[in-house]
Amino acid sequence: MMLKILKDDKEITQVKNGIINFKFFKTGKQKGRFRLKFKDINGNQCLINNCFSCINYFEQKSTNLKEYPSYNFTYISEIEEIEDEFGKGLKVQFNPTSTHNTKFSFSISFKFYDNLNFTLLRLVNVQDLSSEQFKIHSLSPLTIKNEPLYLSKDEEPTNLEKITWFKNGWQSWSPCKVFYGDQKDR
Prior knowledge:
The chain has strands at residues 4-8, 12-16, 20-25, 33-39, 45-58, 65-69, 75-84, 87-96, 104-113, 119-128, 135-143, 164-167, 177-180. The protein is an all-beta fold. The protein has one domain (4-159). Strands 1, 2, 3, 4, 5, 6 and 11 form a seven-stranded antiparallel β-sheet that branches. It has no helices and 13 strands.
């Protein structure tokens, strides 16, 4: 079995499955952020760095969209062995250590499988903890901002205008959309 926990301490959790190398920062300057290293179909090393999760919501009585990112929290990890339709794997869930004086709370759940070239990522236990009711626009388990992506064997970052993104709506009435390059969802 190639799936293994490389590190799980107070500061980081690192998991590797033979294809994907995942690192989550629980505390410190990078808290609430994660990175994914993986190999493309040709075996070239790729890197998506400084990823985070967030809740996108509207300010009170406004159409201004704000985000509530995972880097607002420090985390503890829970690791569990699983077996489901994809096979044997690990479920790694990151829970905030404190939700005092926060608008929202959410946990981030990852599932990794031995030698499979994907990970399942979900926001779970999402709660509005504010005294005001906020209107949620979207949940974004994977957010990448102002960060070079290395999705090919080139020494230069990948040009984002050449990437196609797929968005799957989280409600039955939410549309699925395809975005090209740097198009925005609004």
